[in-house]
Amino acid sequence: MMSRALRLGASPFAAIGFAAVVAIQLSAQQRPVEEFFRDFSAEWARGNPNLAIQTRYFTGLEQERLERQLTPVTRTWREQRVEVARRGLGELRRMTRGGWTEQQHIAADLLEWQLGVIADGAAHEAVSSFPLEQFAGANVNLVNALTVVHPIRTEADADNYLARLAQVSQRMDEAISDAKAQAAKDILPPRFILRSTIAQMQQFIAPPPAENPFVTSLDQRLAAAKAVTDERRATLRAEAARIVDGHVYPAWRRGIALLTEQMAVATDAAGMWRLPGGAAAYAFQLRRHTTTNLTAEEIHRIGLREVARIEEQMDAILRTLGRTQGTVKERIERLRTDLAYPLTEEGRTAIMADIEVMIREAEKRAAAQFDIRPRAPVMAQPYPRFRENNAAASYSAPPLDGSRPGVFQMPLRPDQMTKFRLRSLVHHETVPGHHFQIALDLENTAQPQFRRVRLFGGIAALSEGWGLYAERIAVESGWYEGDPEGLLGALESELFRARRLVVDTGIHAFGWTREQAIEYGIEPSEVERYVVNAGQACAYMIGQLKLIELREKSRAALGDRFDIRDFHNHVLLAGTLPLDQLERRIDAYIRLRSTGTQ
Question: What is the pLDDT of residues 222-250, one digit of tens each?
Answer without folding.
Answer: 999 998 999 999 999 999 999 999 999 99
